[in-house]
Amino acid sequence: MPVKQSELEQVKELLSSYMNVQKAIKRLTKEHQSSMGISYEQLRILKICAENEQLLLRDILYEVKGKHPIVAANIRGLAEKGLLQVKNFYLSLTEKGKMILEEDEINTYTYKAFMKICSEIQEDEIGKMIIVNQKVAKLLNR
After folding, report:
1. Which of the four pLDDT bands, split at 50, 70 and 90, describes residue 95?
2. Cross-referenced SUPFAM superfamilies, in alphabetical order (predicted)?
């Protein structure tokens, strides 16, 4: 079944709008993490360490899938800030590292982004967005 040009244009526009929202949230994420004094990659390392009480250095390298020198520099930076402890090739969060993660959850960028959206979009439009997003999620999860 051939696709009409107008349908193709709609698909492009819809995809573009989702990508623009994703880019905006990513930008807000980076701003939030920067305000905490750590990078996106460092926060990711902290979250991975939080999921595992004792994590081997090689495991984090596999999990992050980054270049070894960059990951090592991020780990060193976290250790220097007192957020991560490195002992005998094992990584673990310090109390300060746990507090940063708790602050991130409380102050999460996604909530901030959506609070901004909710403050500037009318309630009926938000309701419609919720319905559309639920339909999209349902379609994509089939």
Report:
1. very high
2. Winged helix' DNA-binding domain
